[in-house]
Design a protein that fits this description.
Elements: H1 21-44, H2 63-94, H3 96-111, H4 114-128, H5 134-161, H6 165-173, H7 178-207, H8 209-213, E1 214-217, E2 220-223, H9 227-237, H10 240-269, H11 286-292, H12 295-314, H13 333-362, H14 364-400, H15 403-418, H16 425-435, H17 439-442, H18 445-448, H19 452-464, H20 468-476, H21 481-515, E3 517-520, E4 523-526, H22 530-540, H23 543-576
Antiparallel strand pairs: 1-2, 3-4
Helix pairs in contact: 2-3, 2-5, 2-7, 2-10, 3-23, 4-5, 5-7, 5-21, 7-10, 7-15, 7-19, 9-10, 10-15, 14-19, 14-21, 14-23, 15-19, 19-21, 21-22, 21-23, 22-23
Length: 578
């Protein structure tokens, strides 16, 4: 890390604390935020009964209220995603037995489409909160959570697995406990990449916000007040002006939380970069500079620092390096064999139940048809990921290695990543119908519109964390052209690229549901694929075929992850960080 002070999550003392006018200027903003959050939370808990239609309008003056509701859902989902990512990554990275279950489980969860989660969870959440809108709100928040959590979990897991060996050795020398190692080494090391993936997850929530707020399951249409429902209504009404207002509203929201949240966090997290010398340019944030001059904010930060320091003392090791308990413990081969037997028994039981389900509910002919459709979608995913990598890896490396441009393009990249594919449907449908194009080919780009940004954001995070010493060494050796990419740039960003490719691949499978079955007013275009199959069965409420489609998608995604992405992950761990 850069220096001792940079390891701390909160400053130990007030930095450039000016007069108290900074506190007085900040107080109205804090009070306004609290009032808005309280109002939004109260609206989420209003009475509601199934079959009831909530009053929604395409009036642009309603958009600020809709934006408040949507943003509140997304930030609640973001908080839950952050907690999930930390718990998952620590368990998967530190415990081999847990890793054997959690990584395949995350593959399964990532491959389940958002409509699959909604078809399963809506009824349960409504039953949990009868007579209240809170049940449907929880279902929408959970759907947004499923579009955010997996990317952050993969990012943090990859960072924990690739902590440099010299830092791990230092942690062992200083006899840090697991709690101390996480807060003093692992989380600070992972913080720059985690923040970029949080931005991508926030944008991913926008991408699926239409499906999250405009819920259509089992012939029931529930539209919650929000920007997603507004977009869905505008598409149904073919109202291009309303779509324009929605785009403008999204742009304002993204600019606001970029300036008020992510830009200060990126500037703050720059101190956790793993290098000994300073970078040529560092990210800056006017809000972070302002907060550092406010004594009240510094007082709260100091209190948080003291509480964290207490936990670090409380959960320290009770023995030193000379104790017998400090010796590394060998893995129990017997425990691993028992665990493998339990997993094998669980897999065999699941296969038996699956065979029984197929035989009794859908038939083997339907299974063959669904897997054929899955092959079409698999081909689209592989081609689109390859094309996206060719475009965004070089551009992501350039942005990540130029902090000034990184700051300028941060909000632009978030807006492009958040742009829902649904808003491209009018253009796509009109062009395909006008030119009589093949939907199987020309609907495919809609799958990658929202997921290609996973590759870009992860490559930017990987490139921005390249130590300055390594950059100087490459310049001194005169590396250029393909040799520079082969020996320096590609190895440096390869782990981050694999993380982005995994999440982009899983996101593309999810996006196939809205990209292979496109509706614009009375016109519907359909491409042959697993996504269109699941979309049709969800709208019809055919739960056996919904389960069959989701199961087939799980098989395809897990197979792709096992035979391609996991091998690239091991390559990144073995060759890039040894």
């Amino acid at each position: 890390m850069k220096n001792q002070a940079s390891r701390e999550f909160f400053p130990r003392q007030v930095v450039d604390a000016g007069p108290n006018r900074w506190d007085w200027a900040l107080l109205p903003l804090v009070l306004a935020a609290i009032v808005l959050l309280a109002y939004g939370a109260a609206q989420m808990a209003q009475p509601f009964h199934m079959g009831e239609t909530l009053p929604l309008s395409l009036d642009p003056w309603q958009l600020p209220y809709y934006l408040l509701r949507t943003t509140l859902r997304m930030f609640i989902a973001m908080g839950a995603s952050l907690v999930f990512a930390c718990v998952f990554a620590v368990l998967a990275a530190k415990y081999r037995l847990a890793e054997r279950v959690l990584i395949p489980l995350l593959d399964i969860l990532q491959s389940i489409p958002i409509l699959g989660f909604l078809s399963i969870t809506v009824t349960g959440f409504i039953a949990l909160f009868p007579g209240s809108l809170l049940g449907v709100e929880c279902a929408a928040i959970f759907a947004i959570f499923t579009s955010q959590a997996w990317n952050m979990a993969f990012s943090l897991y990859q960072s924990l697995r690739t902590v440099p060996a010299e830092l791990q050795e230092a942690a062992r020398v200083f006899q840090l406990s697991g709690w101390q190692r996480f807060w003093r080494l692992e989380l600070p090391f992972a913080m720059p990449g985690l923040l970029w993936n949080m931005m991508m997850s926030m944008s991913g929530g926008w991408f699926f916000v239409v499906a999250s707020e405009a819920i259509s399951v089992s012939h029931q249409d529930i539209k919650l007040p929000g920007v997603g429902s507004y977009i869905a209504m505008a598409i149904e009404a073919r109202d291009l002006s309303a779509i324009g207002w929605a785009i403008g509203c999204m742009l304002v929201a993204i600019l606001l939380y970029d300036q008020l949240l992510f830009r200060p966090l990126v500037a703050w997290a720059d101190k956790f970069r793993f290098e000994e010398s300073g970078a040529d340019a560092v990210p800056r944030s006017w809000l972070l500079d302002w907060l550092r001059r406010a004594r009240g904010v510094q007082g709260v930060a100091g209190w948080c620092q003291r509480q964290l320091a207490r936990t670090l003392t409380l959960f320290r090791r009770s023995h030193d390096g000379t104790s017998i308990r400090a010796r590394p413990q060998s893995r129990s081969a017997r425990a691993e064999r028992v665990w493998d037997a339990v997993l094998a028994a669980g897999v065999l039981f699941a296969i038996a139940r699956l065979v029984q389900f197929v035989h009794s509910e859908v038939g083997w002919h339907e299974v063959a048809h669904v897997f054929t459709l899955g092959g079409y979608t698999l081909l689209r995913v592989l081609v689109l990921i390859a094309l996206a990598a060719l475009v965004w890896v070089p551009l992501g490396v350039w942005i990540g290695m130029n902090p000034r441009w990184s700051g300028r393009l941060q909000a632009v990249a978030q807006f492009l990543a958040a742009f829902p594919a649904n808003l491209f449907f009018p253009v796509a449908v009109m062009l395909i119908v006008h030119w009589k194009l093949n939907p199987d080919v020309w609907l495919s780009p809609l799958m990658i519109l929202g997921t290609q940004w996973y590759i870009l954001f992860n490559v930017i995070a990987g490139a921005s964390s390249i130590p300055n010493e390594l950059r100087l060494a490459a310049q001194n050796l005169g590396l250029s052209g393909w040799l520079k990419w082969k020996r320096y740039l590609l190895p440096a960003v390869f782990p981050s690229f694999v993380t982005g490719a995994i999440t982009a691949s899983g996101g593309s499978w999810n996006a196939s549901i809205v990209a292979e079955y496109v509706t614009w007013g009375d016109t519907t275009l359909q491409a042959q694929g697993l996504g269109s199959y699941i979309a049709q069965m969800t709208a019809a409420g055919d739960f056996p075929r919904i389960a069959l489609g989701i199961g087939a998608m799980v098989v395809f995604v897990m197979g792709l992850n096992h035979f391609l992405w996991r091998r690239l992950y091991r390559l990144a761990e073995d060759r890039m960080h040894t």
